[in-house]
Design brief:
It is built from 10 helices and no strands. The chain is 58% helix and 0% strand. By secondary structure, it is mostly helical.
């Protein structure tokens, strides 16, 4: 529902059908998050949002730096899902199909890239920044980003693959520039 309607709702705020579908998608997502939880992209988002220095997203008050939660989450998602795909390629390909990706002929080894591509497609259609670097982060920030992620056990421990500090470091580096 989100893949089919998010860009429409952003491009045309008067598109009541797309907006209604997004309301339903948000409700379903909340139910899903409440039952199954979330994992690394969310855990990684907290230090991103907390450490942003100068970024001011369009459409938000410009009186202080801000990385909205959804933005802070999605900027880490392509790298994370490339990394977690080997744990369950079929599930990652299923998620990509739900997002509208053509998965015909995709091998299990392709799952992470296919899902990341579907996420990136939506990011580009909705005007998301091209990675953490677009928010002003550099490789010099990565150790502090990792340090801020480690305590987020409530969500990071739900990852299908345990993430070491070294893994998190590489995921943040891979999230600096996405396309």
């Amino acid at each position: 529902m989100t893949a089919a309607n998010l860009a429409r709702a952003i491009d045309d705020p008067e598109d009541d059908e797309a907006r209604a579908e997004m309301l339903m998608a948000a409700a379903f997502a909340g139910i899903g998050f409440g039952n199954a939880g979330v994992h690394l992209p969310h855990g990684m988002s907290y230090p991103v949002a907390g450490m942003v220095r100068d970024f001011r997203p369009p459409g938000y008050p410009g009186d202080h730096a801000l990385a909205p939660h959804g933005m802070a989450v999605i900027l880490n998602a392509p790298a994370v899902f490339r990394w977690t795909a080997p744990t369950n390629p079929e599930l990652h390909l299923y998620a990509a199909r739900l997002m509208g990706a053509d998965t015909r002929g995709a091998a299990p080894d392709d799952a992470g890239e296919v899902l990341a591509g579907a996420i990136i497609d939506i990011m580009r259609k909705t005007g998301m920044p091209n990675g953490l670097a677009a928010l002003g982060f550099t490789a010099a920030d990565v150790d502090k980003l990792v340090e801020g992620t480690i305590p987020q056990h409530r969500v990071t421990k739900l990852s299908p693959k345990p993430a070491t500090p070294g893994d998190l470091r590489q995921l943040f580096l891979d999230s600096m520039v996405i396309w």
